[in-house]
Amino acid sequence: MSPPLEPSSSKQEDMETMSNYAESYLSDYEVDQEKLQNEKMLFEKPRGERRWLGKEHHRGKERLHNSVKDRTFIEKTVKATEPLSKNATKKINASTRDGLEFNVVYSLDKKNRWKTADTISLLGATPENLNAEVVEKNALEACGIAHSEKSTFAVHSKQVNMDQEPGEFEVRSATSSGNGQHYSNFLPQTREFSKKANARMMTIRGEEPTQQMSPASQPTISYNIYKAHPSQEVVGSQMFKSKPMSKSARHRPGKGEDLAFYEDENDFDYDEEDFEDETSQSQSENFLDLASLSVGNRVKQERKSKRKDSELTYEIVEAVEPEFSYLLNIQEYLRDEGYMFEQADVTFHNQKDNIEHQIKELQQESKLVIKDLKPRQYLIDVSKWCQLDGGVVDGETTTVIVISHIKKNIYNVLVNSTIANHPSKKGSEYLRKQISSAMSIREAITRITSEILINRKIVETMKMYIKLFGKKTFSELLHDCNAWENQMVNMNWPNQHYHATWANSEELSNVGTEQEWNDLCAMVKKEPQLKTGYTSDDNCGLCSKPKKFHELFLVDNESKIKCTECLRDEFYRELRARRLPIDLQTDTADELECLPTFIPLTVVNWYIRMVSETIFKDLGASESFAKCPSCKSALFFDGTPAEKTKIKIIQNRSCPCGYSWCKHCDKEPHWPMKCNDYAEWEEKWLLRYSMMHAQGSGTETLLQVACTCAKQMYNVLLPEEFMACPRCKLNVKVDTMQTFWKHHYFPFAPVFRKLVVDGHNPFTGGWNGIPGDNYHEVRYAPRVAVCTDVVKIPPIKASVMDICGAARDVRFDLHFRNRAVQREHILIRKKVMETEVVENLFGTSAYLVELVTAWMYMTNYSDKNVKSNLESMLEDRRALVKTLEGEDSAAITESVKKLIDGIESVKRAVDKKTSNLA
């Protein structure tokens, strides 16, 4: 507000005359000075001296600035080159995982949003097919919201590299100083990314200018973070810019805010409930964002003056910001690993016994582990009920069920598992319907574990599908209902033995030492207390929300109450920052046992492994730590290879459960090839190997089919007239994709042919499983059908194909392996052989023949000695198979020694070459 004009000279003379008259008047009459002073105080304005005398107008400016300078707000918006419909906006909002609505101002000081609202988390919450950016702006108004586009001082955009793993991205940041610049100055086409802006620098560096990228057509999700500038002088008078008032004051736009409203900091509420109706409505009705509108194909007007040299000082950061690079992305880990965290209040109408009696009966089960958390609250470890008998035993806790008795026949049931759930069966309503009719707690647990056991098999099938086809990521399949319904759990997958140690080589791997899970948990536990402090239904002492007794914990020696939501936020904040171990200071006998009541079990197990790894390294251990992808066991690997391997560099790892993998890429073992070479080799080798065993003689298309019987996968080279499933013998005519019984002549009388077509055996009169008259009308719809043009498959030398194909045939032959092992056991019982060596020798020899041949082909390395050793190794392998059929101990020993010598010679030659290349 500008100061008033100075009075004119004539008015000054009149005022002086009036002043002299007042003095003469006072000299003639006596006046009560005290009464006169009171009258002056009554009618005088409280602001004191006139504004034009230099006194600051707003005495509360400094106080107001101090009260709002540390307050931060966030607003999510979407920008697009074309107008977006309401349905498109809803779909974009549903695809984000930030919990924010569009065009709603949220305070980062409420609900602890500042803990998770960093650049990495915000950009990671958006899908990869949409552009995302975080825009930091100076808040110029008293309430902390700025509508000026000239207040931007940082823009962070997400750059997705398709060569990286799904979910990984880079952050490109452009920053400014001072009180901000216009948002358009940070755009790629007008800043450092621009060809015009970089012309001078490229000339100095001697670089060639790159072609300017066209703007992306995908919508852009912007996270606008508003924060008042810490300097009061930079903000200036903009903090006191008048805003539109209520509807009753719309004819008085010049009326400012009452500063007394901001004197009490506690009276200013920043929650989104207050901003959702007022702020969004005022923005939509009173402000027009011209940047979001586009009129035709506008051509940007060229600048008349050249850019200043000072503008080249703004740097583009090509990597993740240093202050957030150390943070762990918990949500990304949960998506990659999968989990189930379902909770519901269930009313059991059919139960007769009380919960105490039922828990005592469940404690007699040897496969269940039951712990008392609080009075009327029990944690039941059902991991052993969620795995098949005779299968691989899980090394960690996979499923727990927490039961809390609320009142009468009402219970709160929490299912926390590392095994993902069907996307259509999520939510409390499904869990309530699933177990509400159970006659006992045992029956309810049986229903839950039975479904988890089915989900476990489906999840394993999804992982094999991803490794074979790679069309979708694991997290995408977990949210795809069709992938869950299209169950192929009993299918004979061609890659189901890729990671088996017997198909690779234990001798070429670093076998880890498995650690007992209970020992790791004992290391993580803090000093136990005698009992657990508990409370009844109350309000949380931190967020003040009403909670049930099972959602509240006493902390700080029973001086404060915290709910599970607040404790979860605190736990995530400490874990993301790697401040280990984490102590929530809850008044519990064992805090680690209470974590599964509000933390997903996948994160709890991850936390236990991290803390145990930290403890072991602090004690001086030099091993490396990992988790077995199959049995979930915690493994410690020696930093130096074992003496028996005699190889300097070992990249293959094996678990005692029989699972092997590469420590760098987690794929199947592929030493001596590097991970990038193996990825290139695998892409063309698997398709070429499928062509070697495909049906038909076509030369145009390779068809990979998963039959409708869900038991067999086979390959067909098109064009071809017919194809048949090797398992169910179902015949299909390729051009019409219709099933039929037989495509050749039926050599029987018409009456017998009619009986067979109708589905009856004319000799026995019974059903023989053959379709009826409509068999020729059934259309074949395979579960998976992938077509690949043969011309697009990279070629491989025929000699390499023959050697690698023959080695792979015997390498993954499970029946041959079982027969050889069984024959070896018979010879050991007859004292013909002493120890078991056959399985490892057969796996190592076939592994070396295939992978070393591929390694020489990919690296263009040719060694006649290595090739001759590989050929002789195959001959020694065949000779050992023949000698095992007899019972000549000397011949068997000689064959075993000869094969071992051949393997060692190949290993030494390859290791010497790889060491020289390294």
Report what the structure shows.
The protein folds into six domains: 9-57, no CATH class; 62-248 and 262-294 and 310-317, no CATH class; 330-497, no CATH class; 530-620, Herpes Virus-1 (2-Layer Sandwich); 691-792, no CATH class; 798-917. Residues 1-12, 21-29, 192-197, 209-216, 235-325 and 761-773 have low confidence and may be disordered. The chain has 25 helices and 28 strands. A seven-stranded mixed sheet has the order 2-1-6-3-4-5-7. A five-stranded antiparallel sheet has the order 8-12-11-10-9, with helices on one face. A three-stranded mixed sheet has the order 13-21-22, with no helix packed on it. It is globular and about 135 Å long.
Record keyword descriptors for this entry.
918 residues; alpha+beta; 6 domains; seven-stranded mixed β-sheet; five-stranded antiparallel β-sheet
Give a nutshell description of this structure:
The chain is α+β, with helices and mostly antiparallel strands. It folds into six domains: 9-57, no CATH class; 62-248 and 262-294 and 310-317, no CATH class; 330-497, no CATH class; 530-620, Herpes Virus-1; 691-792, no CATH class; 798-917.
Strand content is 5-15%
Based on the structure, what is the oligomeric state of the protein chains?
single chain
Tell me the structural class. Answer: alpha+beta
Give the overall pLDDT as a whole number: 76
Helix content: 25-40%
What overall form do the CA principal axes indicate?
globular
If helices are DSSP runs of H or I spanning 4 or more residues, what is the number of helices? 25
What order do the strands of the largest sheet run in, or round the barrel if closed?
Answer: 2-1-6-3-4-5-7
Q: Compute the gyration radius: what is it?
A: 38 Å
For the record, the count of structural domains works out to 6
The counted number of beta strands is 28
Stretches with pLDDT under 50, minimum 5 residues = 1-12, 21-29, 192-197, 209-216, 235-325, 761-773
Q: What kind of sheet is the major sheet?
A: 7 strands, mixed
> How far is the N terminus from the C terminus?
73 Å
Keywords: Metal-binding, Ubl conjugation pathway, Zinc, Zinc-finger
Protein name: IBR domain-containing protein
InterPro entries: IBR_dom
GO molecular function: zinc ion binding
